[in-house]
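Final report, closing paragraph on structural work. Over the funding period we assembled a curated collection of sequence-structure pairs, and we close with a single example.
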Amino acid sequence: MSVDHATPSPSRAPAPHPPRPPLAFRIGITGSRDPEQLSDAVRGQVREVLQAVREHIEAVARDPAARTVYGHPPSEPVQPTLRIVSPLAEGADRLVALLAREAGYALTVVLPFSRTDYEKDFATADSRSEFDRLLDEAALESRPVLTLDGVRGDAETRSYEAVGRLVVRNCDLLIAVWDGRPARGRGGSGDIVGFATRFGPPVWWIDTTGGNPPRLLRSRSDLRAPHRAPRGAQAASLLAEIVARMLLPPRMERPGHSLIGRSVHALYRFGRTLPGAVGRHVQRHLEPYHDGLLAYLRERPPRKNPLWQLFDRGHRRIGGVPTPVPPPRTPPAGPGAYWDALFRPADLAASAYGDRYRSSYLWIFGLASLAVVCAVASLANAALKPAATLCELWLLLTILALVAVNERRNWHGRWIAYRLLAELCRKQGSLALFGWSLPPPALRHTLPMEQAENAELGPAETWVAWYFNAAVRASPMPTGSLCEPELIAARAYLRTTLVEEQRAYHADRRMRSRRAGAWLVQGGEYAFFATLGLVMIKLLLLWLSGDHQDAGSEGMHAIIVALGASAAVLPAIAAAFVGIRAYAELELLESQSARMAHAMSEAAVRIDSLDLAQPLASQDLAAEVFDVSAIMLQEVAGWADLFRVKNVETG
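Its predicted structure, as stored:
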């Protein structure tokens, strides 16, 4: 598989910042093969929508917000990449491809069978010549041509269905030149339009009967009741809004739920009202707290700090020897390398901020326990009161500083958002090897996709979906033939990097969570029983001392005070153990990892059992990878929900 040279692929070399995807938009085509249905009116409507989309995207490219998020040379304007994805069948597929090329769109070709077999669909020499010319032009321009492993005969209609669905999976708008009637078989226009309304991309329906102006189908409800779907000028206006919302980054603010978080939020809003350098200074330093997308694009490769390795080192020491993980494999060129380059910076940043967040609450619990020790010492010994009180104040201020820094730098939010992004890129990198992708409905179950209607600002993690979708639009298509040798290599790569790696990770997390949870439970129990023993000894000494006022009574009193102080401190230590265990959610993580390790083992059996010599085995393998990705996304969503509300606070 080779790289789509028209779409720059992020480099595997370490970069100072995460990659910024280029501004790209893809249009797919499905429609009638009957030349008699392609009237001049239909041709005019195709030209209109192609030109309208081009104008909308060029307007986005001129927007100042686009310069901040899309990859382009600093001194040059944002240059959009426009692509048309077509199987080049006779009729609408080829007509739209030709008109799109006239309008400046680059052509991406997907074929259901080998080129020789596919040409049997074309009845005339002129049709075959036109098909060959378009394929040769695509090859000369280094544009991708992907050939599926479909065949004639019993699997023929399924082959047409597979190529039609692949077009839907790789477009941001589907043009349907269609009479509105149900499909006569699998892979017909009606079937593909129905799949598109379930999968996600909006459909621009051009009615070949000439009875209606173009309609915009946004969902299955529009398809079921097309007379209610937006049409004409209303559809054109909605299309412009959809393109702008799709391509321009969302605006967000994170108000925070703690007193410190609300204070930082209020300071940021106040800074936006200040004129001049002071206002810009306040906004620049608090911007990462609010705008997650800009914060991520400005991230640098994290540097290890021993202060923030407390959780990781403690977890490793308590959890024991990690489960061996298969050595990483070099991703295939093209979409594999592209998504690997997007996954790595997100993965590194997520690990770094996860270490900071989790280590910070360990420090807070530890410092809080020491503060209790100082408070008890100041009460137990008058001579120690000044120093102990000063030390207690220093510990409390340190806790406050840790919470403020976490709120200011948003360690907790970045950890969750970057981990979500990394896992999305990991799954998409596996599916992209076959030209598949994660559908918007699957993403909506994992993280918010769009801000609510009439809301000025979107949810805190909307930027993750936006950035991921921008990367999907710019992703290169696989090139070549999905035949048995390529599928064997792809299966071996996915078996290691997706299934086995995840199985080993969850087996390791399950073991570590179990051991760490047991250690914390035992620590809390030991502290409790030690407290119980100290109280009993204190009562015994009080009973033995009675009312005697001899020379040893002062020593006995000191011992009793020391026992009382220890009995007061130990519950604080036990509470710290309980608090750490509750914050870490070790039992839930253990249960979650047990289910995932079992699911990955079952997935490995299913993937290994596939006969890759069968027709359309690529789609069977992709479907298994899709199911594995869906399971993993559910696990990621559950993990994110588990920790989304567990921010570091002083209370």
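DSSP finds 22 helices and eight strands in the chain. The first strand starts at residue 24 and ends at 31. We thank the funder for supporting this effort.
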